[in-house]
Task: structure prediction
Amino acid sequence: MFRISDLRGIMSYQAKNYDQLLGIKGLSDQLLKNHFTLYQGYVTNFNKVNDILVAMEREGKFGTPEYAELNRRFGWEFNGMRLHEYYFENLSKEVRAIDQNSELHKKIVAEFGSYEAWEKDFRAMLAMRGIGWVVLYHDAQADRLFNVWINEHDAGHFAGCTPILVVDVFEHAYMIDYGIKRADYIEAVMKAISWESVEQRMK
Result:
C-alpha cells in the first residue's frame, strides 16, 4: 500500500527547453534566457519543497508549523513552474492571426461579441497596474471563456477551468527590453501568440 510520501516520491519534474523561442521578434535573447533561468528555478524549488515534505511525512511531522508553511508554498512553486510553461508554449516566432474559421474564434465571438472586443478586454487587463498574469480560461462545463487576472501564482485561478492563453506581466517578463514601457511589451507579445497552441488546449 502506498502512503502519501511514497506517491510524492515519484514526482520529479524536469525543466523544459524553450530555446526554440530565441530569435522571436520583440523579445531579446537576453530577456528570454533570463526568463528561462527564472522558470528553471521554479522547477528546482518545487522539487526541493516536494522532497522536504516527503521526508517530513515519513518522520510524522504533520502538525509542525514547517509542514504547514511548506504546504502553503507548494502551490506557489508548482504554479510558477506550470504558468511559465503555458506562457512559453503559447508563443511562436511564426506570426499568424487567429483563424477566423476556428472553433476558438467562434467561441470568442459568442462570448465577447467580437474578436476585437475580446482583444480590447485582454489588452486592458495586461495593462493594469500591478504584477501577475492574464489568463484566458475555458470552462468546459459551461463551454464559456473568461479573461482572468491572476495576481499571485497560487491565487485567483478559476477552479476546474483550463488556461488556454497565458501571458506573464511580472516585470521580469519585459523590463530588460522595455523598461517601464509595458505597452510596448504587450504589443510584442500579442503579435507572438501561437493561436494553434491556444486552440489545442481548448480541445
In short: Residues 28-203 form a domain with the minor pseudopilin epsh fold fold (CATH 3.55.40.20). The chain has one domain: 28-203.
